[in-house]
């Protein structure tokens, strides 16, 4: 296997360990400076140049995209995706994980534990927002930040209000998050590779510091995660579109609470703490996946005219309740069930004898016209809305009577 590691820091521990692990296993590996790429776009021929020369063939790419170069870095990863080269993390997954608000929004749609969080811009909304997350103390976070930077603890409502007002005056967007008291000063970092947690450690803050990050002086200890924590970490990375990630969790009284997901997690801390070959597990996973790369289903499936992907909900009283996938008649209607969601359980490629229950959700691919009648009315969308003429209304009337050149001047 020929592997490219996208990294600007060839001397950092993580990059050196990944390169070392690949060489140990007999693979060809090269560290590629992410900012030295040029992206060429031509019809049906996406291409890349590196240091002014045409990029040679690679079987897989392992992105280590720093926060400061997220936009260009994800563009490079996206180009590799268009060239059908396996990447451990998708460009969309990297972008989503960098924005704390966006990542929590994505997770909030699923049965994944997250701390109650609110996002406000108007000063008058700050106090109601704090009340909605349970009152003081609260955690205040910048939308983008790593290693505990931009994470503050406000002990009182007045302090929280002042901090938010100060940060907003500096054009900073902030999240207000419930303070999980039972986990004060500690969290768990689960390192996920593929569909398993390959290592985990508990980080514990020292002294008066509430942030447990190692860069803030926190100490680490290896931990054997319970099944619910392992499942939460793996499902989180799958939802985010990541295959290699560090998932930070709080130990809440109701189970794991996902704080954030790191798409370029450092290896030094987790390997030092657990004494496990995490770098080697990443390389082994990549080698196993090279022959079976995942593709962007949205890109592939939506190009067929009249076909697409839809989620069919099976409510109480539905004709499909207590029927098997085969007897439901979906396949006769040219509709294929790709995945069955039942509560927090995900059942890929459900068997034909799988019995459907009330509350199930089926992710299906098939003829859109046939699936339209199976989707509840409130979730239906007009696929091809007709564009109407401007209505005879006051504001629209301005567009019909005014001179466009005068309006734009």
From TrEMBL:
Its cofactor is Mg(2+); Mn(2+). The keyword RNA-binding does not apply. NCBIfam families: PRK10446.1, rimK_fam. SUPFAM superfamilies: Glutathione synthetase ATP-binding domain-like, TrkA C-terminal domain-like. InterPro entries: ATP-grasp (IPR011761), ATP-grasp_RimK-type (IPR013651), ATP_grasp_subdomain_1 (IPR013815), RCK_C (IPR006037), RCK_C_sf (IPR036721), Rimk_N (IPR041107), Rp_bS6_RimK/Lys_biosynth_LsyX (IPR004666). Coiled coil: none annotated. Residues 296-380 form the RCK C-terminal domain. It comes from the Bacteria. Residues 104-287 form the ATP-grasp domain. The keyword Metal-binding applies. Keywords: ATP-binding, Ligase, Magnesium, Manganese, Metal-binding, Nucleotide-binding, Protein biosynthesis. It comes from Stieleria magnilauensis. This is Ribosomal protein S6 modification protein.
């Amino acid at each position: 296997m020929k592997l490219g590691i996208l990294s600007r820091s060839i001397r950092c521990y993580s990059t050196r360990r990944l390169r070392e692990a690949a060489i140990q296993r007999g693979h060809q590996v090269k560290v590629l400076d992410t900012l030295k790429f040029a992206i060429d776009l031509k019809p049906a021929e996406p291409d890349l140049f590196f240091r002014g020369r045409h990029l040679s063939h690679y079987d897989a790419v392992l992105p280590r995209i720093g926060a400061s170069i997220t936009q260009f870095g994800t563009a490079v990863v996206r180009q590799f995706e268009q060239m059908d080269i396996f990447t451990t993390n998708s460009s969309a997954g990297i972008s989503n994980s960098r924005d704390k608000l966006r990542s929590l929004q994505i997770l909030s749609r699923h049965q994944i534990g997250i701390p109650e969080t609110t996002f406000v811009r108007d000063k008058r909304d700050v106090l109601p927002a704090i009340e909605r997350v349970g009152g003081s103390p609260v955690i205040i976070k910048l939308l983008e930040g790593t290693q505990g930077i931009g994470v503050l603890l406000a002990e009182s409502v007045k302090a929280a209000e002042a901090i938010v007002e100060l940060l907003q005056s500096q054009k900073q967007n902030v999240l207000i998050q419930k303070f999980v008291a039972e986990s004060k000063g500690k969290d768990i970092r689960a390192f996920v590779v593929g569909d398993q947690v390959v290592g985990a450690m508990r980080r514990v803050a020292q002294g008066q510091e509430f942030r447990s990050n190692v860069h803030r002086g926190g100490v680490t200890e290896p931990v054997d995660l319970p099944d619910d924590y392992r499942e939460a970490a793996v499902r989180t990375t799958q939802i985010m579109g990541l295959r290699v990630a560090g998932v930070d969790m709080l130990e809440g009284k109701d189970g794991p609470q996902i704080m954030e997901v790191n798409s370029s997690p450092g290896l030094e801390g987790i390997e030092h703490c657990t004494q496990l070959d995490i770098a080697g597990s990443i390389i082994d996973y990549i080698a196993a996946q090279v022959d079976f790369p995942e593709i962007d289903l949205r890109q592939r499936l939506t190009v067929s005219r009249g076909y697409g992907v839809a989620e069919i909900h099976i409510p109480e009283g539905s004709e499909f309740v207590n029927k098997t996938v085969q007897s439901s008649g979906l396949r006769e209607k040219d509709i294929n069930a790709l995945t069955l969601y039942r509560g927090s359980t995900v059942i890929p490629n459900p068997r034909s004898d799988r019995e459907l229950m009330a509350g199930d959700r089926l992710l299906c691919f098939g003829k859109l016209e046939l699936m339209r009648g199976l989707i509840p009315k409130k979730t239906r969308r007009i696929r091809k809305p007709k564009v109407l003429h401007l209505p005879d209304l006051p504001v629209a009337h301005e567009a019909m009577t005014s001179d466009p050149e005068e309006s734009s001047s």
